[in-house]
Amino acid sequence: MSTTITRPGGPESAERAARELEEATAREIVLWAAETFGDRLCMTSSMADALMVDIVSKAVPGIDVIFLDTGYHFPETIGTRDAVASIYDINLVNVEPVRTVAEQDLALGPRLHNRDPGICCHLRKVEPLREALEPYSAWLTGLRRQDAATRRDTPVVQWDRRRRMTKVNPIARWTQEEVDAYMSEHGVLVNPLQYDGYPSIGCEPCTRRVAPGEDPRSGRWAGTGKTECGIHV
């Protein structure tokens, strides 16, 4: 028999928190989330860097950090994941899709990411994350308004209607200059691909290098018209 999880919060609570915390520091927002949701709070990380892990683990030691292991990641990303898990005070939760890449190729044909990247992202990211978030009432992300036009209205706290849980974005207001300053001051671990022309890192088949002056996310799903994997839409 399945058990329905009662989750604290709701749309009104999230909207109120967004207003009240708009000018709060990232640490204050994280501490608010920890006090509000307790052990039903987690965070996600793509392992492009450990900025959010550094901020959150200092405020909430031992927090669950969900990493979506799609089977298509660069070796550098997997190496960053392993280094983050060993260096920071977190509990890494490695989440894999129902099907391996080989099983997906057998069922749906090879290179689905080329033929229909939307379905591939849904099967290997969106659905696995949905299941991984089931035990929690809120999740912390590293979304920033400066990241992309699709994210410019990101509140520091919002109600995730699809998953019916609270989504907390502590660094939503941060500029790239603030990100760089924090990472330099605190010696934050960085995926080495960041130094090789990959400012936004996703799955290897769907990520290319970005030329100087290009939009940092232009290397994701280049030429497809796709701008988001579906997790944050």
From TrEMBL:
Binds 1 [4Fe-4S] cluster per subunit. Gene3D superfamilies: HUPs. [4Fe-4S] cluster binds at C120, C121, C203, C206. It is an enzyme of class 1 (oxidoreductase). Signal peptide: none annotated. Its EC number is 1.8.4.10. One of its GO terms (cellular component) is cytoplasm. Keywords: Cytoplasm, Iron, Iron-sulfur, Metal-binding, Oxidoreductase. This is Adenosine 5'-phosphosulfate reductase. The lineage of its organism: Bacteria, Bacillati, Actinomycetota, Actinomycetes, Streptosporangiales.
